[in-house]
Amino acid sequence: MFGGSEAILAALASLGDPTTIMLMVGGITLGIIIGILPGLGPPIAITIALPFTFYMDAVPSIILLLSIYSAAVYGGSISAIAVGIPGTGAAIATVIDGHAMFKKGRGGEALGLSLTGSIIGGIFSVICLAFIAPLLAQIAIKFGPREFLAISIFGLVVVVRVAGENLWKGLAIGGAGIFLTTWGLDEVNGTERYTFGSYHLYEGIPFVAFLVGVFALSEVMMNAETALRKVDFDKSSLSVKLPGLKTLAKLKGTIMRSSLLGTVIGIIPGEGAAVGAFFAYSEAKRRSKNPEAFGTGEPEGVIAPETANNATVGGALVPTLTLGVPGSPAAAVLLGAFLIQGLAPGPRLFAERPDLMYSIFIGLLIINVLMIFIGLIAIRFAAQLIKVPTSVIVPSVVLLCFVGVFSVSNSLFSVGVMIASGFLGYTIRKLGYSIAPLSIGFVLGPILELSLRQSVQISDGSLLEFFASPIALGIYGVLALTILWGPIRARVKKPMEGVDDA
Amino acid sequence: MTFFKTLMAAAVGSLVTFTTAAVAQDDYPNKPITLVVSFPAGGNADIIARLNAEGLSRELGVPVNVINVPGGGMIPAVMNVLEKPADGYTLFRWTTPSVVIGPLVRKAPYDPMADMTPLFADETVANALYVSADSEIETFEQFFEVAKTKKMKMGVNNIGAPPHLSAVQLGQEFDLEFNNLVMKTVPASLLGLVGGQVEVAVGQVGSFKTMGDEIRPLVILDNDRKDFYERDLPGVPTVGEVFPGKNAATWIKGGIAVKAGTPQAVIDKLVAASEAAFTTDEFIAQVNNLTAYSWVIGVEDTTATIQEGIDLYKPFLDQLGLLAK
């Protein structure tokens, strides 16, 4: 297809390198640990590791970050089940039935279901990625201003609708995110906007510093507020019981639907694991013969969100790799890693680095398989991890954030931006708003602005020209459908309050 | 006696001061050197800087560490160098945006000609005009005929960047108007050709290597032929060759500079080490893989080269209203 067997061999060779394998194992371990630690999610996990990739080759660095990403999405379920505290936003849906199962003494079973579901969802989405991405890359070359405009509008509208406590709050925060991206030199005619006379702001607000501040620092501040939790739980429940084939056969409908739902939601720009998990949970509940059992420890209520959230990983990589538009907040940070390597994700990446593409596809499969073993070991130590007091976690994470952000640009200004955006994120959360629209607005804002202005330039002032593209029309059509998809939204909306996507 | 003692002390003192100063320069370098790059790690600009660091380290016998200070219109990178002492332990990888265009279009807190001493230039890039490989336009003359009749959609990377300035110059010289679409990077401009978002685009002479048979070069946006044109774009004429008397020029170069005020002995040492390291066939071959090697050595000649760049771009930027006032 792209580069053929030669590229596959090159990919296998770089994946078989002992360093890459070590990075994979290390990345999965780190990802699970960060996932287990309450509050720290995939975007934080990836940003913490980002500076270490500076002097690595492209394949090992991307594989390291993908290991962390997949594992962090999974890891959150362990604390969700064992203590009822979601390790990540992606595991909030898992708490409901997972912890209920745990309290009933079926914790081992729940942990087994979440691990199995995560692996199946992960592998399913990688296979989809491997088939969809090359096809989309061929269409993606036709993506011009009008199509990118449609995509960014799509992503923003969907995030605002599902993640906000109410529509207006979501719109306001999403708008604030877009506003912040207008700072710096205007790309179209070079005007200085909100630079406040500081040359540091010419390139706008630094991306990584902002995301680390909003995700990691604000989360740590929220955590620091809570008094030291006293966690006590029955450790015997932490021995995993993997589901047998019979159980899986009974759940196969839910597993397949959740895998598909997660992958599709991952593909939608901006939506990540948390949204995927909620959709899958409510869909499983809606289709269930006894929906009233949900919330009391229903196995389907564990496997549905856990399958879906890992399925968003492969899905999120589809637009990230083919269009350069991040499919999830974590993928936005991943995009930064590509740029550090001098690689511009987009339709050309397939033609230029087929070996890298195959490394990503094959690497993700291996990561998911390794995750079974590392996950089984990690669960045994989860008890100790969950008991690590906030007073240890908070300073360690703050230190890693500072070091990481400083090393991206060797600039103290970026550290200042991180602190400021940390306070911004904290304030937004304290006011009861969700930070998901803020980060998505910040990620999609530049694409939205540039494509809007280019579209205006191309159209010579005619509004109809904006729709003179079949691809853009198709995207707007799907958007209209999702808006009309009210009933599911109504189910999802309530538990989604205050969810910060990952 | 007292007077004599004081005199002696002063003499000894000054002798000591003198010798330590001399020794400090004589044994330069005696600690690791830092090379500041204004681009993120991984790109061509960064790779060349790392080749520089390797070569200098070999010649000078101390480690030369590359640090990347990207963003901020390249001003933070320059300030990073200018805030350090002028002792030759902090070097700067200069490029067109940091020494020519940036200071012209922005209120930069530095003056490249007064605050920096350039040591050499080792790379050069030229622009070329491209269309999609399936375009009906096959020659520069045909392009000219089409462009006279309508405002063609022209892909450029950024406003004020050399490709855009080449497009502006082309428009002025041939009395054409373009609808300039900002595509952010040169590869994105060329990809716009393939996807049909733009009809014509300015890329670099070397861009053809990476885009292969999907794009078609029409003309090299330069007056005189340089030796690497035949290597990268065989058979493609320059503007000056097709329409003698019409003016087209690009000035995209890069090299290494130190902070102004660096002791002459240190500069001499660095220049000598650079000459030894960067005129080898091995280094030239490596640079030629990335862009094109064009060697100017010594403070005076390099300064004159940079001045040429400023003289070329200043009038354009002024006409475009982009000059910082």
UniProtKB/TrEMBL annotation, chain A:
Residues 21-438 form the DUF112 domain. The keyword Chaperone does not apply. The chain crosses the membrane at residues 20-40, 52-72, 78-98, 110-137, 143-160, 167-185, 205-222, 260-281, 323-344, 356-381, 393-419, 431-448, 468-488. Keywords: Membrane, Transmembrane, Transmembrane helix. This is Putative tricarboxylic transport membrane protein.
TrEMBL record, chain B:
Residues 1-24 form the signal peptide. InterPro entries: BUG, Bug_dom1. Keywords: Receptor, Signal. Pfam families: TctC. Belongs to the UPF0065 (bug) family. This is Tripartite-type tricarboxylate transporter receptor subunit TctC. It comes from Primorskyibacter sedentarius.
